[in-house]
Amino acid sequence: MNDCPAIRGEFSRQADIARALGSPFVASVLEAGERHLAHAPRTAALIESWPGDPSAAALAMRFNAAIHALARRGRPRWLESLYRRQHDDFDGAISAAMAAEDAFIARWMQHPPQTNEVNRAAAILSALMVAERRFGLPFELLELGSSAGLNLNLAHYAYDLGGVAAGTAGSPVQIAPAWHGAQPPEAAVEVLGARGVDLHPLNAADEATRDRLLSFVFADQPIRAERLRHALDLAQIHPPQITRADAVSWLVEQLAAPQQAGTCRTVFHSMVLQYLSADDRRVAIDLIAAAGNRATAERPLAWVSFEWTQARSEVQLWLTCWPSGEARHLATCHPYGAWIDWRG
């Protein structure tokens, strides 16, 4: 059994969140993992010696994805049959997997989560619709933490945003979050270019990449997994432009580059800031604000943020527009974009 209160608290906390988000299967996986962590000494040592905040690093979600990845590989068979809903012996299946695959789990958990959740594109696009109504200009998009770049393709997806149709009609990627509150403004968003950055960009055409991304999808959310498969397929038709670099140095270069008159340069990110160091996070925000101070009516700047609050109590969508510098809390959102509570 696990003797570390920090580990116990983090796994239990994430299990409660997963259950509240409608994923009881994932909650049971995490709870069984907590009970049997002693069967995986390498994994236990990795978590116990983690240098930062285990919650901000999403260690429980890394663990859940590692177990899901093993089940997708059929290792061990009792775990695979649990994920196929052929039995409900969570303790037996999870403990056996942890004992047999400790090295795999620990190795997997050393890398940050790569969800690249396309459902979040609904919130990002909604913010762009507000900015379009504000400026009436096409967009140049710059994304921090692009992963496989699926949200750089947001203009190629079809949306139902509280009854407002947007995006590309007939797209195989259909995004319709549960919508609460008033409708977003109807606006046609034109994207002239979209570029992103990631320390470890993923190739959507690579089978290992597809497997990793799908492993991070909760096992009891098949619709979400199917949407991701369609987005990965679409990314092979419209390959995202992603630079392998750290976010700060890339942002310095991008914001210093000349901006075409009559375009709205937009920096956006979703669930990324928590993985930056405190210093890098401060520098990135200062860089955006400095670029905003240089913005003009012909060359405006927008900043779209989809992130946890500092207390990790909720996920908020914010839009800041320059040259005015006005910041607006547009919505509170489900962490994976399943619902949007629009404040507008």
Question: What is this entry, summarized?
Answer:
This protein has 344 residues and is an alpha/beta fold. It has helices at 5-20, 24-35, 41-48, 59-73, 77-83, 90-100, 102-109, 121-135, 207-215, 222-237, 247-256, 278-293, and strands spanning 139-144, 158-161, 164-167, 174-175, 178-180, 191-198, 241-244, 264-270, 301-308, 315-322, 326-333, 339-342. Helix 2 crosses helix 4 (59-73).
Strands ordered across the widest β-sheet: 5-12-11-10-9-8-1-6-7
Global shape: globular
Rg is 20 Å
Low-confidence stretches: none
Number of helical regions: 12
Distance from N terminus to C terminus (CA atoms, Å) equals 48 Å
Query: What's the helix-strand series?
Result: HHHHHHHHEEEEEEHHEHEHEEEE
Helix share, percent: 40-55%
Q: What is the count of β-strands?
A: 12
Amount of beta strand? 15-25%
Report the average pLDDT across residues: 94
Quaternary organisation of the protein chains: single chain
Major sheet, described briefly?
9 strands, mixed
